[in-house]
Amino acid sequence: MELLGVFENVDDAAAAVDGLIAAGCPERVITSVTSVPYPEGVLVDNTRRSWFHWLALGGALVGACAGFLLAAGTAWLYPLQTGDKPIIALFPTGIITYEFMMLCAMLGTMLGMFLEMRLPDLGRRAYDPEIANGLIGISVTVNGDEMVQRAETALNSAGALRVLNDEVS
Amino acid sequence: MPADRIKAIAASNEAMLSSTRPANWRWYLLAFLLGIVVATGLYAFAHQMLTGMAVTGINRPVMWGLYIINFVFWVGLSHSGTMVSAILRLSHANWRRPILRGAEAMTVFSITVGGLFPLIHLGRNWTFYYMIPYPNQYGLWPNFRSALLWDMMAITTYIIGSSLFLFLGLLPDLAVARDRATGWKKMPLAILALGWRGTAQQWKTYARASTLMACLVIPVAVSVHSIVSWDFAVTLVPGWHSTIFPPYFVIGAITSGVAAVITLMIVIRKAFRLEAFLRPIHFDNMAKLLLTVCLIWSYFYFAEVFTTWYGHKPIEWEVFSFLHSHYALPLFVMLLGNTLVPIPFLMWKRVRRSIPALLVISLLVNVAMFTERFLIIVPSLSHKNVPFLWGTYDPTWVELSITAAAFAGFGLLYMLFAKFFPIVAITDVREETEALRGESQRGRTRLATLVNEE
User: Fold this and answer.
1) CB atoms inside a 10 Å sphere around CB B128
2) Which residues on chain A are in Cβ contact (under 8 Å) with B160?
3) Residues B150 and A70: beta-carbon distance below 8 Å
4) How far is CA B447 from CA A8, B2, B444, B451, in A?
5) pLDDT-based confidence at B1, cuts 50/70/90?
6) Which of A10-24, A77-91, B354-368 has the highest mean pLDDT?
7) Helix or strand or coil: residue B256?
8) Residue A92 pLDDT > 80, yes or no?
9) Number of A–B residue contacts, CB under 8 Å
10) Residue A74 near residue B133 (C-beta atoms within 8 A)
11) B190 touches chain A (CB under 8 A)
12) CA gyration radius for chain A?
């Protein structure tokens, strides 16, 4: 179950994170939910490694190959001799390869970003629309009645305005 | 006082979303007027399609007229939006924040308008798909040696890239707008926000993706205008066949783009009462940027002219003399708007912080840049290598109507965008004030601090 404590200020939210850790919740199941990005460590330490840039790199390689094959490959497959000019024109091939490479790198970046963020998120999540107005959410995913109780107590004792869960939010 | 803080943030959100409030009669009137101009342009285009290219002023030898001038101008205008935004993002220039969205939207709409002009210029517009490589029964295949194919690839890449960059910047703001929306707007905003919540992981990935996209979009922007310049430079037309053209085009594009961003900032500030966010410091910094690019443009122009003058190659000199004798007034307008006015005036802080003065200068720069595109294209084609084929060019009402429609269409698209989406980058602005700014005691005083985004 995901619990979301909503706080009015950063200090209370940070205290809630400390309280949750003290209550036995591992830091990896705790996250902040905010409408602006806070610097690393102000609320939670996010140690998860990012991998989406590999998809951007993969996109660039695929794009470069596709662009090269489109411009040079088709010229080679269907040769059209013009004077003594080469069948494969290097300069245009370079341009088409470059543009395809950049296009696919950007598409790869966006695709990777959405996959890493797990968006679009169609599931029901604990959320408070007032977060858009500056409230700060601290979310924790816990299992078992006892852990849920301890997490809720930690959030409330840190000064949460309300505690929501993914079933009632 | 936490409650006061929340109230202040809610008020700040409300102010930054002011453009999305229900439209008043002035908005509808302006949209109607712009719509009429667009409709006139569509009529002119339909007339051209039904009658043929003879209704335009293009002729032998001036085969490229107002359409290609527009194409180069609009592609140039699109440059600065995404590029300036990306450069300022990468350099962590904090003053960038209120400007980003307006600049990025400008890029998307101006490249969209610009991309239409080669299609309008085609003549038999309905065969435009011949440029797309796909297996077909006609045995047609695009010739990648043609610079027009490079244009198509580059512009497609840039439209997609800058649209993605705009959407990326919008994503957290769409969530803010979703959470505050009521009525019919809530559902489309919820769909576009994709379920964004703003978890620490999402913000971390978002920041990295923004940086990576900024790194990718800058070389694409440079390549687009370099390729547009090669449309000219790879030909043997006197006045065009020059190695300086790609950087000269790129800096010209940035000049017109920066000026357009300033103009739009002034309009947005006034129309949506964003004085609290678009402050004199933002105009001052953008004006410094404009001054810098005007200096670089002037240097490039001088280098080009000096080389031509010193070489005195007969045909190059013929084009040059023709330009100076027949187009003296446009030439003066170009130099006035790009060099003689902005460079001396923007050196003064008082001018850089004066909104009316900046409005005049930024508009003048773009008038000059449009004139520059005219002076690049028409005189060179008028006096090419074969003297018995020399001629001149005068645009007709069809071309002028379509040009007016392009400006009106751009304005209309921008108005519609601002009506449905936040025109100020809400989370970027709030990030600075809420998450990065602070105070620390130093000696006997408290100093304002700003956390480095690194």
Assistant:
1) 12
2) 103, 106-107
3) no
4) 25, 22, 10, 13
5) low
6) B354-368
7) helix
8) yes
9) 178
10) yes
11) no
12) 25
Report residue B444 as tokens. 């006997």
Distances (CA, A) of B112 to B73, B109, B219, B246: 12, 5, 19, 21
Cα separation, B111 vs B221, in Å, equals: 11
Distance CA B61, CA B182 (A): 59
The alpha carbon of residue A139 is apart from the nearest alpha carbon of chain B, in Å, by: 9
Which DSSP letter does residue B94 get?
A: G
The Cα A40–Cα A59 span in angstroms is: 29
User: B154 and chain A: CB distance < 8 Å anywhere?
Assistant: yes
Residue type, B326: H
Residue A83, number of CB atoms within 10 A of its CB:
4
Q: Which two three-digit tokens encode residue B391?
A: 């001629």
pLDDT value for A169: 54
Which amino acid is residue A54, in one-letter code?
Answer: W
Beta strands in chain A (DSSP E): 2-7, 30-33, 136-141, 162-165
Q: How many residues does chain B have?
A: 454
Residues of B in contact with A105 (CB under 8 A): 216
**Minimal Cα–Cα distance from B235 to chain A, Å?**
14
Q: Which residue has the tokens 């404590």?
A: A5
Per the structure block, which two tokens stand in for B124? Answer: 């038999």
Percent of all residues in chain B with a pLDDT value above 70, rounded to a whole number: 97
**Residue B443 reports pLDDT greater than 80:** no
Cβ proximity of B316 and B308 under 8 Å: yes
CB contact under 8 A, A119 and B195: yes
> Does B168 touch chain A if contact means CB atoms closer than 8 Å?
yes
Q: Mean of the pLDDT values across residues A52-80?
A: 93
**Strand pairing partners for A162?**
A6
What percent of chain B has pLDDT above 90? 57
**Angle, nearest 10°, between helix axes B397-420 and B25-51?**
140
Sequence-ordered list of residues with C-beta below 8 angstroms from that of B358, at least 6 positions apart, any chain = B262, B266, B283, B287, B351, B352
Report pLDDT for B58: 93
The answer on pLDDT for B440 being more than 90 is: no
State the virtual CA torsion across B5, B7, B12, B18 in degrees, nearest 10: 170
Instruction: Report pLDDT digits (tens) over B135-174.
Output: 888 878 888 888 888 988 999 999 999 999 999 999 999 9
Contacts by B322-327, CB closer than 8 A, 24 or more apart: B322/B379, B322/B382, B322/B383, B323/B239, B323/B375, B323/B379, B326/B379, B326/B392, B327/B375, B327/B378, B327/B379
What's the whole-number average pLDDT of chain B?
89
Judge whether B236 and B319 are in contact, CB under 8 Å. Answer: no
Q: Are B256 and B114 in contact (CB under 8 A)?
A: no
The reported pLDDT for the residue numbered B452 is 63
Among the four given CATH numbers 1.20.140.10, 3.40.462.20, 1.20.1630.10, 3.40.50.2000, the one describing domain B3-448: 1.20.1630.10
Q: Does ipTM exceed 0.90?
A: yes
